[in-house]
TrEMBL record:
ATP-dependent carboxylate-amine ligase which exhibits weak glutamate--cysteine ligase activity. One of its GO terms (molecular function) is glutamate-cysteine ligase activity. Keywords: ATP-binding, Ligase, Nucleotide-binding. The lineage of its organism: Bacteria, Bacillati, Actinomycetota, Actinomycetes, Micromonosporales. SUPFAM superfamilies: Glutamine synthetase/guanido kinase (SSF55931). It comes from the Bacteria. It is an enzyme of class 6 (ligase). It comes from Actinoplanes utahensis. It catalyses: L-cysteine + L-glutamate + ATP = gamma-L-glutamyl-L-cysteine + ADP + phosphate + H(+). The keyword Nucleotide-binding applies. Belongs to the glutamate--cysteine ligase type 2 family. YbdK subfamily. Its EC number is 6.3.2.2. This is Putative glutamate--cysteine ligase 2. InterPro entries: GCL_type2/YbdK_subfam (IPR050141), GCS2 (IPR006336), Gln_synth/guanido_kin_cat_dom (IPR014746), YbdK (IPR011793).
Length: 385
């Protein structure tokens, strides 16, 4: 949920380098939960955390909907190494500010521990949203990951959105990191996804005929009352309202900066691969909307360790196998962007340790408590090894 622009403008030097080598830039936004310094419950301390932020972070850290949340946005990058350094710096810097304010920074999709429903940030737009839509998001906040990948123009971007639709459920499964809510296991790998879908414009991107069609849909949704403005277009992939990017936004925030970098790299390689299909005139598969909804539900329920829907056969298959299929599909663009070695290593690590949801459940299975899960998440978010 945005109140203003996020991220930073691409520099002319970076834009020129990207154009010269026909490469795509990428950036990442992450939303985090603030929890009490000693207890696992969420803490409404966002203003106190902002007061502790150093000057170099103030332009890239934002409020979110609830007082228990905070958001960061990396600058655009070409190299994964630079993106990794930026995300680690953001996490450690905001985590340190949170600790000075009596809180901990936690990269998790929903509040794992029991607690009261949080209050919204004192912001005119958020108050209007609350008045219009009521209590659609009870709890302590929902935290996601958004990946921005550059596109040449909006018309091409719309065609990329069409091509992206079949691939997003498996990427969502890879991000699953919210099995716990209010002190218990929900039975879902991503409970944030279930809660998030209560909002009227959340869901798979529809099949779009053109950029004009995209703009008409946005205007119609605002006129219907389902959105206050175009910032409430919560499709799983959309055109950025502020930057020349497509924004992929269906995933939970992930436990580590490396997890986020892996998602970003796979997303950029996928967009680059699909751009080539668009330029070649290859039509996007017009996947039935109910099947996409089923695949996204499966991603939320099973996560990466269960099944998802193979859009080519319309049959359930292991989500890990579908993620590997995506990796093989985008491998040429991973190599061309210089990301193959890093992604291969990070994908192996994800395979070894499992999704965030699997890691949380493994702690509980070993006799850990919800409080110990929150401790682990806080340490992992901060970057402790």
């Amino acid at each position: 949920m945005e109140t203003a622009t996020s991220g930073t403008e691409i520099s002319s030097e970076l834009a020129a380098e990207a154009e010269e080598h026909d490469l795509l830039t990428l950036g990442v936004e992450e939303e985090y939960l603030l929890v009490d310094a000693t207890e696992p419950r969420a803490a409404e301390l966002v203003e106190e955390v902002f007061a502790e932020l150093p000057g170099n972070l103030r332009d890239v850290v934002q409020h979110e909907y609830y007082r228990t949340q905070i958001e960061v946005a990396s600058p655009p990058h070409l190299e994964l190494g630079a993106l990794t350094e930026a995300l680690r710096g953001l996490r450690s810097g905001v985590a340190a500010a949170a600790e000075r304010a009596g809180a901990r920074l936690v990269a998790v999709g929903t509040g794992p521990a029991a607690g009261h429903n949080a209050r919204i940030v004192d912001n005119e737009r958020y108050h209007r949203m609350r008045e219009r839509f009521g209590d659609l998001s009870p709890g302590q906040g929902m935290c996601g990951t958004h990946v921005h990948v550059s596109i040449p123009d909006p018309e091409t971007g719309v065609q990329v959105l069409n091509h992206l639709r079949p691939w997003l459920p498996v990427l969502q499964a890879a991000t699953a990191n919210s099995p716990l809510f209010a002190g218990h296991d929900t039975g879902y790998a991503s409970w944030r996804s279930v809660m998030w879908e209560r909002w009227p414009t959340v869901g798979p991107t529809p099949y779009l005929r053109s950029h004009e069609h995209y703009l008409t849909l946005v205007e119609d949704l605002v006129a219907s009352g389902a959105m206050l403005d175009d910032g409430m277009l919560y499709w799983y992939a959309r055109l950025s309202a502020h930057y020349p990017t497509v924004e992929i936004r269906m995933g939970d925030v992930m436990p580590t900066a490396d997890d986020a970098v892996l998602l970003a790299a796979l997303t950029r390689a996928l967009v680059a691969t699909l751009l080539r299909e668009v330029r070649a005139g290859t039509p996007a598969p017009d996947v039935a909307h109910p099947l996409l909804m089923a695949a996204h539900w499966r991603a939320a329920h099973d996560g990466l360790e269960g099944l998802n829907i193979d859009m080519a056969t319309r049959q359930p298959r292991p989500a890990w196998r579908l993620l590997r299929q995506l990796f093989d599909y985008v491998r040429p663009e991973l190599e061309r962007h210089g990301d193959l070695a890093t992604v291969t290593r990070l994908l192996g690590r994800l395979r070894e340790h499992g999704s965030g949801a699997a890691r949380q459940r493994a702690l509980l299975a070993r006799g850990g408590s919800v409080a110990e899960v929150v401790d682990w998440l806080a340490n992992t978010t901060r970057g402790d090894r």
